[in-house]
Each structure stands twice: as structure tokens, then as C-alpha cells.
Write a structure and sequence with these properties.
Helix content of chain A: 25-40%
Structural class of chain C: alpha/beta
Oligomer: heterotetramer
Largest interface: A-B, 45 and 44 residues
Strand order of the largest sheet of chain A: 3-13-12-9-8-7-6
Number of strands of chain A: 13
Shape of chain A: globular
CATH class of chain A: Alpha Beta
Helix content of chain C: 10-25%
CATH architecture of chain A: Alpha-Beta Barrel
Order of helices and strands of chain C: EEHEEEEHEEHEHEEHEHEEEE
Bound molecules: flavin-adenine dinucleotide, flavin mononucleotide, FE2/S2 (inorganic) cluster
Order of helices and strands of chain A: EEEHEEHEHEHHEHEEEHEHEH
CATH topology of the largest domain in chain C: Rossmann fold
CATH architecture of the largest domain in chain C: 3-Layer(aba) Sandwich
Structural class of chain A: alpha/beta
Number of domains of chain A: 1
Shape of chain C: globular
Chain lengths: 327, 327, 264, 264
Amino acid sequence: MSKAPDLRVMLGPIELRHPVIDASGTFDVLEATARYERDFLTDFPFAAYVPKTVTREPRPGNPPPRVAETPSGMINAIGLANPGVAAALADLPRLAPLRAPVIVSVGGTTVEDYVAVVDAYEAALAAAAAGAAPNVVGYELNVSCPNVRSGCLSIGTDAHETEQLVAAVRPRTRRFLVTKLTPNVTDVVAIGRAALAAGSDGLSLINTLKAMVLDPATLTPLLGNRTGGLCGPAIKPLALRMVSELAEALDAPIIGMGGVISGRDVLEFIACGATAVAVGAANFTAIDAPDRIVAELRAEMRQRGLAKLSEVRGRALDRRPPAVTGS
Amino acid sequence: MSKAPDLRVMLGPIELRHPVIDASGTFDVLEATARYERDFLTDFPFAAYVPKTVTREPRPGNPPPRVAETPSGMINAIGLANPGVAAALADLPRLAPLRAPVIVSVGGTTVEDYVAVVDAYEAALAAAAAGAAPNVVGYELNVSCPNVRSGCLSIGTDAHETEQLVAAVRPRTRRFLVTKLTPNVTDVVAIGRAALAAGSDGLSLINTLKAMVLDPATLTPLLGNRTGGLCGPAIKPLALRMVSELAEALDAPIIGMGGVISGRDVLEFIACGATAVAVGAANFTAIDAPDRIVAELRAEMRQRGLAKLSEVRGRALDRRPPAVTGS
Amino acid sequence: MADVAGPASAHPQAKAAVHSCRVAAVRHYGPFACVTVVGPQLAAAAEPGQFVMIQVPDSRFLLRRPLSIFAVRDDEVTFLIEARGAGSARLTGTRAGDILSVQGPLGNGFPLAGVRRALLIGGGIGVAPLQFLADRLAAAGVGVTAAFGFRDARQARLAAAFHIEHLWLATEDGSAGRRGTVIDLVGAIGAAKNTVLFACGPDAMLAAVQRWAAERSLRGHASLEAHMACGTGSCHGCVVPTTSGYQRVCAEGPVLPLQEIVYE
Amino acid sequence: MADVAGPASAHPQAKAAVHSCRVAAVRHYGPFACVTVVGPQLAAAAEPGQFVMIQVPDSRFLLRRPLSIFAVRDDEVTFLIEARGAGSARLTGTRAGDILSVQGPLGNGFPLAGVRRALLIGGGIGVAPLQFLADRLAAAGVGVTAAFGFRDARQARLAAAFHIEHLWLATEDGSAGRRGTVIDLVGAIGAAKNTVLFACGPDAMLAAVQRWAAERSLRGHASLEAHMACGTGSCHGCVVPTTSGYQRVCAEGPVLPLQEIVYE
Ligand SMILES: Cc1cc2nc3c(=O)[nH]c(=O)nc-3n(C[C@H](O)[C@H](O)[C@H](O)COP(=O)(O)OP(=O)(O)OC[C@H]3O[C@@H](n4cnc5c(N)ncnc54)[C@H](O)[C@@H]3O)c2cc1C
Ligand SMILES: Cc1cc2nc3c(=O)[nH]c(=O)nc-3n(C[C@H](O)[C@H](O)[C@H](O)COP(=O)(O)OP(=O)(O)OC[C@H]3O[C@@H](n4cnc5c(N)ncnc54)[C@H](O)[C@@H]3O)c2cc1C
Ligand SMILES: Cc1cc2nc3c(=O)[nH]c(=O)nc-3n(C[C@H](O)[C@H](O)[C@H](O)COP(=O)(O)O)c2cc1C
Ligand SMILES: Cc1cc2nc3c(=O)[nH]c(=O)nc-3n(C[C@H](O)[C@H](O)[C@H](O)COP(=O)(O)O)c2cc1C
Ligand code: FES
Ligand code: FES
């Protein structure tokens, strides 16, 4: 196997040059470019860009502390801090140099919030002069954020509410629509099925696990928000299980994530049925982590004699017919 | 604060000399005593003994491999391997030298299974000659094992089924009844509330998180059962969150567990509202881990000037009145 | 959004990179260590008040640790580290020859334009960025006085790492230097009208410095700490409340105008 | 339950304990290392075929690693370790003076009563328990022949750690010793009627040895590997299928009668 392995994947209609994308909220291409020698806009390590979740109104976010380390993981309660959709749209021209496709992450506390953000993007993109905006190929509906007291959680943990949300957003855009699922549920397949039934084109998971860490000195919650979302290598086994459950039960492209920190992890998610794989907390281990991960993925494929990722996709799945209920 | 801290706690009516007990399935006092220099029966490190879950019939358990390491954690799919209740009862006299109280863990796939095990224990204990059996003070209903395809999972993930199970077992014994909850649910408080409503005296949590690891060589599931239960320090932040949710919402003694590996961890669970704290995977780090953990707990209390554990119990909880729904 | 525009920095910011640096020397002062690494690019780019994100050389630690730049000399950059938790303890245990992954320089740094007289106020490990600052100010001919407050003589061993001409010490228990807080100390030293304050230390100290400066209408800057994940402005994890909303310590900071920080 | 009563062991089992052992010496053979620790109690208690659970000296690793006892001499116990994954790699990187936490001895060990002639069959790192066995057998006047199979010359470097008089080698690629599998090798060596086989190695090898022995009506014992958590019989994590149901490698094993192991 001396030919270079082909890392390209098709995420629905979107061609990605490799399967590795960023997990929303963990890499800001403008901030990184502002601070580092490297121009991450023109030398973008990921195959697609998923910016931080945008909401209709600006959100200051949760009181600090907002992040803490945990054994082989971390916890965060940012609280969807973001400047709101108007400011995000004003920033669009700055993202225009980006050659990678963009998937806009949308959050909110009501169905109307989500619709408003998508409508605003559609209008802005329709009005944008050629070359004045990046290539927005889709939306990711963040129905799974466990940090916002008043809204998100209730949508993503309920199949019916998820279905209603997706159904409301679906007619507003022809772009690729991904629903990002929360792991804080009894039956992730039921929520995923509802999202697809309402017109979601794909699914992404997992968002963070609701968790809590204490300040060792005071034995009271460390995070300003008391609870936060657990992520990182600690939770990868849970993420792999959920991704494979979805891949076994449903037929839709999946963006898998949760604890990816190496090229082999990417391969594992693909073996569990994912088409693309997102890197979250690992972005904090080093600014060049995505480059390393993609290089490791290429090396792993070469070692294993894999020419294409489709050779490994779904290899870990249970292909037996589902058990008959009640037997 | 020169007086030695008082580690005693009351778990309902049961006095424990300190709060640290073993998590079911992770320490077998007879096996340890058979193999080690130390007689763990007469020199028992825990304040109470929770043996491995017993089922009505013998169970061979899952095909191997059954255990694997994960980042800061481990996964297991033992599959409730146990010799069945008749063999467990035949072993009771061997446990008689144990001075610590025993809480029998009961599993099954139907309500009748659980009732049969409890009935068998009650009959055997009533018939046992003085000194011929250990001091069985209660039962722990393991409704939460995620590994058995056909049964447990569906009980512990459903409030109604949990309620029915507890209601069926409750009249069969006057001993302390604990329901062990699974974390694989959207709303752990709803399940805990159902268990208490049906007569459970206390709650224990968390059991393991359903998860999957791949064999790095083949990229297929490593465990013979494909999926297994994740535990260890990796999941402690999730366990702390769930224990505090229960402690905030319900009024019942809680046995907290999940990732405890140090004396400070014990204190953290107590700060989150637990009365007793169980040690699972940490038993595998060293056969004398429980001794170390209790010693660390004592040292931490001394350093913090705590005379009794009640001074710290619930310190991490949110004491604000619950938010009005629909506001 | 409040935290998008940072306070204007007095000097153009050099860009950060990931540097693989060999440890040249480690000196220990009780629970503190001065770790000197070879990093020509880093040394050339760094400004006083900036920080780096260092990887703890042990795979158990997911996040990098933020550390101020303590001193820069030729190709070498030195960090002054307190063993607080497991990660920083591991870093103080580094040995000459080890390789550390250092991401930086990051953050805005102290604004130095127009400063004539400077009073550097440090508490505990918060003194870390002040040597580099003193060196740069002295080189520019600025009159520098430093006042450091420590808990006790043990913590005051930190002072041994410093080379600042006018350096005053206080300890709370009086076991080294003057007895009292650093506020008592600066009270005794006093500050001329045009003095600019540069403060770094625990929140309680900074709040006290803020009040002290306000009463005397003194201008000043504070370098802040916060739990960080990215150190790069990406995650919004490191915010502190300011008079203009939350600001990110890693992006708008770590140096903020003393009077803009909000303490309850 | 099938796995409660183990096969009768030929010698009374000494009890296990947690030992804190200083590393006396480490010798490297490519990706393999011989790690010798000082452990008087452990040395006194250990029987051939038993194993220990060693803690990887790095907090990232939750579980101990099971390792066979390779050799015992006076107060010292030696382990022969292959760097397979991250934990065993860390163990092969141990240095003299390091302290290792060693739990053991555990498991039943090889039954030796009545053995007159022994053929030791090892594959890959599975050779590890056979030096101690050979030493004990030789001391009892038993005639010992050993046949080791390796993939290639690189793996065959393991043989350099052994001191067994009649030791035969095969490699699959012929780069060291005879070309072929260890089965080809024992076929060539042959075995008298009353020979007892002691085998340890990968499953495929053990299955082949099982068939080979059955065809010749030879009695034998195999030492098995399994993923373990407790190593103590508590967790039922380490089972293998046998003709009498699942047996725990750490409790009924690691040595089981060769013909009782079930290979699909
Ligand atoms: C801009 C900046 C500059 C700093 N400069 C220095 C310096 O020069 N010398 C020095 O000794 N320390 C400095 N600190 C503090 C230093 O980062 C912490 O002491 C260190 O991260 C603690 O890590 P740990 O593993 O020992 O503690 P743990 O409590 O085990 O760490 C757990 C997590 O919490 C974070 N954390 C814990 N305490 C702090 C804290 N006080 N500030 C920020 N994060 C924390 C850690 O980074 C880690 O992610 C600085 C912090 C910041 C933000
Ligand atoms: C009774 C017994 C005796 C053994 N004797 C030796 C010996 O003398 N020398 C030697 O080099 N190896 C021996 N092994 C195998 C050794 O335990 C594994 O190679 C080692 O645990 C791998 O750890 P790792 O961290 O390198 O691998 P990883 O794959 O990173 O380990 C992850 C987890 O899987 C377990 N694991 C992985 N591979 C194996 C395996 N083959 N067997 C058991 N557990 C495994 C690890 O213990 C750990 O819990 C023995 C195993 C058993 C059961
Ligand atoms: C600091 C931080 C901020 C995050 N912000 C968002 C967000 O804005 N929107 C979102 O959908 N997910 C957010 N996430 C979740 C990640 O996108 C991802 O789903 C999760 O962290 C699991 O992946 P990981 O284990 O690789 O980090 C955030 C995670 C972190 C750590
Ligand atoms: C090997 C193993 C076996 C277990 N067997 C049981 C069991 O039989 N019954 C039960 O209720 N829980 C069982 N558990 C779950 C533990 O009791 C405990 O709930 C869980 O491991 C979380 O605690 P920990 O993180 O301290 O291990 C088992 C866990 C492990 C690791
Ligand atoms: S640490 Fe991520 S924005 Fe500051
Ligand atoms: S490893 Fe636990 S029973 Fe064998």
C-alpha cells in the first residue's frame, strides 16, 4: 500500500478534504489568527469550520470560573457567551478568506430564536456580494447545551420538542441541517430519529455531559454556574457507544465527537459509523493539535493498509437484525 | 482541633463506623481473604459489606474480554456473573465472622426474580442459628445494571417500572431497602422519587455509564458483550452532579459513588449530600486502597478542622427554592 | 459584545507560536521554582505582562497551565512557578534537559507608554511578572519601586529570585520584612502623583490596591488570573467581570486597568 | 458455579500481599526489558507460574498490569516485560532505584507433583514464566527441554534473557533458529510418553499445542492471559471458556489443564 491514503469524505452533499472538523465553541479562527504567527484563515487545519454557537441576542455567558480540569477531561460552563447574530453577521466578511466550508452552529431558548438566527443568516448570505462571505454550507442546531438554565436542555432531551424545533427550522433553509444531540438522555436514538423525521439531514454528537466539580478548598461548586459540561478523553467510550447506537438504528450522516485526541480516535469514531469527526477539548492541548491528529490519521491508514475511510466505516457496528421486542 | 474527628454516620437506622463502603461487584471478601495474607473478614476495611449482585439463578456472565482500561477509568461487562441465590446462601456461614453490617445486592430480569431472591434471604436468615450468618441489615436493588440485555436496563431507566419493582419487594422485608440508580437516564430524580414513593428507604448511585471501547488492532468492540459500563475517576464529575440533584430534590439517605479514589473524593460526595460513599474501581488500584482512603478522609477532616461529617454534609448543594416551572 | 475589544496596548503585540523548549536550569526556593528554558523566538517576542501556556509533561493533564513570563535574558525565558496543585507541582519538578512545550507569548502585557515612575505591587506568587517589567522599565530609565507582600517568611523566599534595586517586603506574620499587608507597605512607601501602579496578586490584594489607588487618584494596571482552557481567546473560559462587562483574561488581559475590575 | 473450585494445585499456595519494591536492575532486549526488584517476602512466597499485579508508576493508569514471575534469586524477583501498550512501555522504562508497587504472588502456579520429564513450550512474550519453572524443575532433578517460537529475530532476542540448558528456537521467518512455528519445532524435538507439557503463548499457539498434545496423548498445562481488573478473584473480569464453564484466569488460573481450555 504505497499510494497515499485518500482521506476525503462526503458529509451528505458536502465534500470534506478529510474527516476532521472542529467542535463548536473550541476553536475561533479569528482569535487564533489574531494571536498566532500562523494565518489560520488561509492555512485552516480543519476540513470544515463550525464556529461557536450563535444566538439571536448577545449573551454575556455564565459567571466565572467557567472551566476546570478533571481526570482525563475538563468541564465548562461558558453559558453560550456570544455577541449575538447581528455581530456574528457583521464578522462574516472577515471569514471570507476561509476556503473550508462553514457550518453555522445555532442556539436559542425558544423555537423562534433558532428560526430568527437562521433567517438572519439566509438573508445576509443572499445579500452578500461575491467573495464577501465564507461558504456557509449548513447549520448545526445546538439543542443540547446543558448550561443554559432556561432553554436548550429541555429541547434536546425531549424527542417531541426536538422534532418541533427541527420542523420549524427546516423550511427556512435549503442548506445542510445537522442536529447536535445531548448525551444526557435515556435514549439518544429516539431523539435522533425525531430530528431526522422532522427533516434534519444529519446528526452530530455528543455534546457535553452534565456534571459538577467542587472547589477543593471550600467543597462547594467550583464553576460559577455550579454545573457544567464534561468532555475530553474521559468520556470517549460513552461517545463511541452513542454514535454506534445511532449508526445502527438510523440512516443519516453522523458527525461524531467526544474525547478525540489522536488520529486513532478519529478512526474509532468512523468505525462506529461517523462520517466526520469533531475535535473539541483537544484544541486546548495545543494550537496545532488538529494538524497532528490529521497527520496521525493518515499514518494510521497507511499502516493498516487502508486506501479510503469507507473501508473502515461502520466496522464496529452490530449488523445483526434488531432483537424482537417482547421476546 | 486536636480531638480525633468522628467518622461515624447513620445510614438510616444503620450505624457505620465511617462512611466508606464497597461498591457491589468490586470487592469479594472471601476471595481476598483466600488469596492475601490479611484476613479481610476479621480485619474488614469497609464500614459495611455490599457483595456482588445475586440473582435467582446462576449466571455464567458475558463472554470475555470483560474488562478494559480507559483514560482515568475502566469499562466492564461482567454480565452479573454469579452462582445464584442458593449458592450465595450456602456461603452465608462463611461470612459470619464479618463484624461489618451486610447489604445484599439483588439483581434480576423480572420483578419476580427480585422477590424470589429477597424471600430466599429472609427465609435463610430467619432459619439461621445464632452466629451462623452475618448481620444482613438491608438490600440494595440493582435495577441499573446496563450490561444485561434482557432486563435490568429497562427497569432502572423507567420510573414506573422502578416503582413497581420496589413496591413488590417492599412488603417482603423489614430490612433497609436501597435502590441503586443508573446514570443512563434523562432525569435521575424522577427515578429516585419513584423508588422512594414505593417504599425504598434510601438510594445509591451511580452505577456505570453505558459505553464502548474498541480493540485498537481490529477497530471492533473489545468487550465480548460489545458495550459495558464506564466507571472510575473519569466519571466522578457526573456522579457528583447526580448525587447533588437527588439530595436537593429528595429527602432520603444516599450512598454516593462513582470514581472515588481518595479521602477528598469521599468528602466531596458527602458535601454533595451523600451519607455513605462507596468505592468501586479504586479497589483494583490496590488491595489496601480502602484503608488509604479512610486514612486520607480522617487526615482531611483534621486539616479542615471538621469534628463530624455532618458539618460538611450538603455543603455543595443549591439551597435556593426550586425554580417555578413554566416561568 | 463587551469583551471583543481589548484595552489599547502601548506596544505592538508579537505573535504567538508553539515552542519546544529545552530546560536550561531550575532553581528551587522552597515550594517555588525558577525554570529557565531556551526559547530564542519566545524571548524575542515576549513583552512584560505576557504569559505562556505550558504543557505539563504528563499525559494525565489535559489542559495547559498559564504562567507569566518572569524574566527574559538573551535566548532564555524564565518562569517562576509555585507548586499549588498537581500540575504546577509537576512543573516545579522539571529538570535541566527536559523538553517543555510552551505556547506563547500570549495576552496584552503591561502598557508602558508614558510611564515615568512605577510602583510595582505584588502579592504571593503574583510577583511573577514583575521582574521582567522592572527590567524593561529600568532599561527605559523609569524609576521603579517594588513592594511585595507575603504570608510568611516561607513565601517570602520568592523575593530571593528577584533583582530589583528598590524592593520592599512585608509579611503578614512579620517573619520577614515589615509586618503587615502590602497595602500597609505601600502606605509607608507612599507614591508621588505621577506614579503608575502595576499590581499582581490575589483578588483581595488587588481589591485593596484598587481602593488605595482610587483614594489617591493614582492610575494603575492589574495583571489577573483565571482558570483557562485555550489561552487564545477561543473558548471564553477565562472571563472576569469589569466595568464594561466580562473580559477575557487571556485576550483582553491579563493586564486590565486597575479601576475597571469589578470586585463585589 | 463452575469457576469457584480451581484445579487442585500441587503445592500449598503462599499468600499474597502488597509489596513496595525497589528496582535493583533493568536490562533491555529491544522492546523487552528484564526488571529485577528487591522483594524478600515476594521471593520467598512465589511459585513458578504465579503472577503479580504491578502498578504503573504514573497516575494516568487506573488498573495494575498482570506480569508473570520470570525468575527468583535470593531476595530478588525478576519480570520479563514486553512494551505492548502505553502501560507496559512505561514499565520497561523503569530505572534502578525506582519504587514499584507489586501485589502478589497471585494465581495457582504450575502443578509440579509427579513430573519426571518436562517440555516447556513458549511463544512470544509467553515465554516469561518458563525460566522460573525450568529453575524449579531442574532443581528437582526433572529433565527439562524448552522450545520457544518467535515471529522473527527481533522477538527472538527474548531468548537471551534465559538460562535453560536444552533450549530450542524457531522463528516464523527463519531469521533466528529453525524456520517455522513452535509446533514444527516440538514436532522435530519429539516428546517421550511421560513428558508433561507446560505451554504459554498466544491463543493460536496454545490451540495448536492442545491439538498436538491430544494426538500424542500427552498431559499438559497452559498458562493463560486475560484482561484483568482485580487479579484477586473479586471481579470475574478475567474469565476464559473451559470445558467446565468460565474460569477466572487470576483465581482458577493462570495455569489450566491444557485439554480443558475451549478454543472455537
Ligand atoms: C495569566 C496567568 C499567569 C499566571 N502566572 C503564574 C506564574 O507565573 N507562576 C505561577 O506559579 N502561577 C501562575 N499562574 C497560576 C497558575 O496557572 C496556576 O497556579 C496553575 O495553573 C495551577 O495548576 P495546578 O495543576 O497546580 O492546580 P490544579 O488546581 O490541580 O489545576 C486544575 C486546573 O485549574 C487551573 N487552575 C488552578 N488554579 C489556578 C489559578 N490560580 N489560575 C489559573 N488557573 C488555575 C489549572 O490551570 C488547571 O487547569 C498564572 C495564571 C494565569 C491565568
Ligand atoms: C497472568 C498474566 C501474566 C502475564 N505475564 C506477562 C509477562 O510476564 N510479561 C509481559 O510482558 N506481559 C505479561 N502479560 C501481559 C501483560 O499483562 C500485558 O501485556 C499488559 O497488561 C499490557 O498493558 P499495556 O498498558 O501495555 O497495554 P494496553 O493495551 O494499553 O492496556 C490496556 C489494558 O488492557 C490490559 N491488557 C492489554 N493487553 C493485555 C494482555 N495481553 N493480557 C492481559 N491484559 C492486557 C492491560 O492490563 C490494561 O488493563 C501477562 C498477562 C497475564 C494475564
Ligand atoms: C469550552 C467549550 C465550549 C463549548 N461551546 C460549545 C458551543 O458553543 N456549542 C456547542 O454546540 N458545543 C459546545 N461545546 C461542546 C463541544 O462542541 C463538544 O460537543 C464537546 O466538548 C465534546 O467534544 P470533546 O470531548 O472533543 O471536547 C463546547 C465545549 C467546550 C469544552
Ligand atoms: C468489575 C465491576 C463489577 C461490577 N459489578 C456490579 C454488580 O454486580 N452490581 C452492581 O450493582 N454494580 C456493579 N458494578 C458497579 C459498581 O458497583 C459502581 O456502581 C460503579 O463501578 C461506579 O463506581 P466506581 O467508579 O467507584 O467504580 C460493578 C463495577 C465494576 C467495575
Ligand atoms: S482561556 Fe479560552 S478565551 Fe481565555
Ligand atoms: S481479574 Fe478480577 S476476577 Fe480475575
